[in-house]
Amino acid sequence: MKIEIDPGAGPCFGVEKAIEKAEFILKEKSVLYTVGDLIHNEAEVERLEKLGMKTIAMEQAISGDYPNVLFRAHGEPPSSYDSVKKAKVEVEDATCPIVVSLQKKIAKTFSEIKDGKGQIVLFGKKRHPEVISLMGHCDDKAIVIANIEELELIDFSIPIYLFSQTTKYRSEYYLIKEKIEKKLDELNLLASSQFSFNDSSCKIVARRDEQLRNFVEDKDLIIFVSGTKSSNGRQLFQICKNTGIETYFISRIEDLNREWFVAKNNIGISGATSTPKWLLEEMSLRVKELVSES
Ligand code: SF4
Asked: Fewer CB near the last or first residue (10 Å), C or N of the chain?
């Protein structure tokens, strides 16, 4: 039997940087307060909590009771920076540079289209921390659409500036782009620069789609390891499921079930862009044990 870890799996560079920053601060200060989950992976958060990391809410961060706070890779709206500054709390910023660049683009577009000269449309998950951070850069004025059905929320009579949350499905984003173009074409508005498309989905996530498809093609079982809150994890898991290969979504070693491995010859272990490599390796070792016991 072959058991293989997906070589393309493991944290993206934004998540890796955030973890490295947290570890560095913990070594120096032995305590660190992060505003919200540092990453969407429960096992990694628990490992860092054992080193002294504590997760707090923004209301706690601005209470003045905590000396330092870390802003996570998803970013924060400008109001969060203002609030912690007022509370004289030291901020360590782990916002992913790709998210920072998107925040800046949205802020610039917003400053140009204020006064009804257009609308920002953001393809994303409404309550996702990154979307909350991006909304803060346009005074919460963007129209957030979670899927193609929500295109009806857009006002097609004024210019549209389309952006995507970095981790959203690229193919779905392009489908949304096509639908908007089709609608504008029907209204004879496509040629009059009514539409600006910003290719803001993260290329690292987009590459993972293809890598994952290549990795799973010869497998007869996939163990997909992800935190339950990871939106990217859910999407990548769905890619595995759509291939028709037997696939299980799990977050912890205890979730593994010996019965899954009966009569399987080629098992693949993969994960989200927030799944740590150590967890994939531990999964692989445990799968080997379960296979040998059965
Ligand atoms: S998925 Fe892309 S944008 Fe998001 S944290 Fe990772 S590298 Fe940054």
From this structure: C
Phi, psi dihedrals of residue 72, rounded to the nearest 5°:
-80, 175
Q: Give the C-alpha distances (Å, rounded to integers) separating 180 from 24, 134, 145, 149, 187.
A: 45, 21, 12, 12, 11
State which H helix or E strand residue 164 sits in.
strand 160-164
**Nearest protein Cα to ligand 1, atom 5:** 14
Report how far ligand 1's centroid is from the alpha carbon of 283 (Å).
24
Confidence of residue 235 (pLDDT cuts 50, 70, 90): confident
pLDDT confidence band for 293 (50 / 70 / 90): confident
Residue 282 appears among annotated catalytic residues: no
pTM reported for the whole predicted model:
0.87
Q: How far is the CA of 86 from the centre of ligand 1 (A)?
A: 29
Can you tell me the mean pLDDT for 162-170?
91
